[in-house]
Amino acid sequence: MSDALITADNISLNHNGKNILDDVSLKLHPGEFITLIGPNGAGKSSLIKVLLGIIKQDSGQVKHSNNIRLGYSPQSFTANPFIPISVVDFLTLNQKSDKNFTNQTSELTGIKDLLNSPLKNLSGGELQKVLLTRALLNKPNVLILDEPAQHLDVDGQMQLYKLIQEIHQKQKCAILMVSHDLHRVMKESTQVLCLYHHICCEGLPESILKDEQFNDLFADQIHELMATYEHHHNHQHEH
Fold first, then answer.
1. Where are the domains of the chain?
2. What pLDDT is attached to residue 23?
3. 191-196 vs 33-37, strand pairing mode
4. Whether the predicted pLDDT of 54 surpasses 70
5. CATH architecture of the region 6-77+140-236
6. Of the candidates 178, 167, 177, 33, the residue with the CA atom closest to the CA atom of residue 105
């Protein structure tokens, strides 16, 4: 299929003689939901930054379709405590957005009550939601989320993943999400890519769970993952 919104071919990246990414290829098509998983230090955030053009790969190429509209929520962002900027000003900084759409989107992500708060006063979880809101104000057809649920407690994580799922279903945008909350990401994904400097395995959530390399990589988390996944999965079919 050539209607991919993002195509990465044979991406390699080195840093200080260390192989961060090794011959990584992927395609993101309209409406897809790809979850990128892998242990810490596997190169997930680096791959996202290469796809966005924030850092330059050493070899391989990245192509964006002509009609791409990107929304990006970074893994870490620290508000400058010396710059007094409100949430609403931060949301609309360098972005054209009408007030109604900003309000609607803020309601969707649950930050409407925070709009007039100083950005520097937000908790980590609130800031993640603000970053997601800002990404959505671009009306993206590709939403790239780098560990959007960190800094949230378990309930907060569940709510945020539910929200991302709703956004995917309602707005029909393609999503590429980095996560290491294995047991939370499986349900909505159309494809899971398991990265450890190279793509170890890829496929539907159910098939990934049975993959040997995946099991080797996540041996310590597998028992928890299987228990939670089966519980939630069976839960879906109860009437």
1. 6-77+140-236
2. 96
3. parallel
4. yes
5. 3-Layer(aba) Sandwich (3.40)
6. 167
pLDDT digits (tens, 9 = 90+) for 60-105: 999 999 999 999 999 878 877 888 899 999 998 887 778 899 999 9
Angle between helices 154-171 and 99-109 (to 10 degrees): 130
pTM of the model: 0.85
Write down the pLDDT at residue 2. Answer: 58
What is the per-residue DSSP string for the chain?
----SEEEEEEEEEETTEEEEEEEEEEE-TT-EEEEE--TTSSHHHHHHHHHTSS--SEEEEEE-TT--EEEE-S-----TTS--BHHHHHHTT----HHHHHHHHHHHT-GGGTTSBGGG--HHHHHHHHHHHHHTT--SEEEEESTTTT--HHHHHHHHHHHHHHHHHH--EEEEE---HHHHTTT-SEEEEEESEEEEEE-HHHHHT-HHHHHHTHHHHHHHHHHHHHHHHHHT--
pLDDT tops 90 at residue 6: yes
| Residues 116 and 87: beta-carbon distance below 8 Å | yes
Question: CA geometry: angle at 116 spanning 80 and 122, to 5°?
Answer: 45
> What distance in Å separates the CA atoms of residue 3 and residue 144, rounded to the nearest whole number?
18
